[in-house]
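**User:** Hello, beginner here. Are you able to go through the protein record under this note? It all follows right here:
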Amino acid sequence: MAGPPPISDQTAAARIRDAALHQFAARGVAATSIRDVARAARVSPGLVQHHFRSKERLRRAVEEFVLQRATAAFGGPLPGRSPAESSLRIGAEISAFVRANPDAFTYIGRSLLEGDAAGTQLLVSFVALARMQIERLVAARLLRADLDRDWTALHVMLIDVGAHLLAPALRRLLGQSILDGAGLQRMETATKDLFLKGVYRSPARPRVRRRTTRG
C-alpha cells in the first residue's frame, strides 16, 4: 500500500492525523494503537495524546478530514444534461477521488466493516451525500420516478467501496489493478453500463405480419 497522503498542513497535529488515516486504512482502527500512530508520524505517544487526548478523538479527527474531502468532491452539483452524461461525470468524480485519496477510500471501507457506532455514522454521512446527488438527478428528470432511492444510493456505495476493499483479490482475478489506469477505467465503464443499460436483454417484440391485399 502507498504511504500516507501528502500533507499540506505541516503541523504536528496534521502529521499525526494523516499517519493515523494511513494506519487505520492499512490495519483497521481496532488493530492500531496510539504507539503505532506515533511511530508512523515520527513523534512520541505523549504528543499524540497531547493533541488528540485519546484514540477515539483521533479517529474522530480522521473521519472529519475524510468527510471534508468527500464533501468537497461530491457535495456540489454533478448531474449532466442526460443520463449518460450524468453517469460519466459521477463516475469520473469517484475515480478522481480514489486516485487522489487512496487511504481515505480504504479507510471508509474498513470503518464500515468494523461495524461499530462510528462506522455506522460514517455510512449515514456517505449515504446522505449519495442521496443528495440522486435527488438532483430526480429533480432534473434523469431517473425513473419509481426507484428505491435509498437502495440506489447504497448500490453506488457498495459497488465502489466493495471493489476497493477487494482490490488485491480483483487484481489477481482480472490481471490488472482497479486503483489506477486501465483497470479503473474498465470498472468505471462497466458500472456506467450497468446503471444505464442493465444486464438483461430487452424482450424481443413479436413481428407483425403485414396483410397483403389481393387485386
User: Anything to note?
Assistant: DSSP finds ten helices and no strands in the chain. Residues 56-197 form a domain with the Tetracycline Repressor; domain 2 fold (CATH 1.10.357). The chain has a mean pLDDT of 84. The first helix runs from residue 12 to 27.
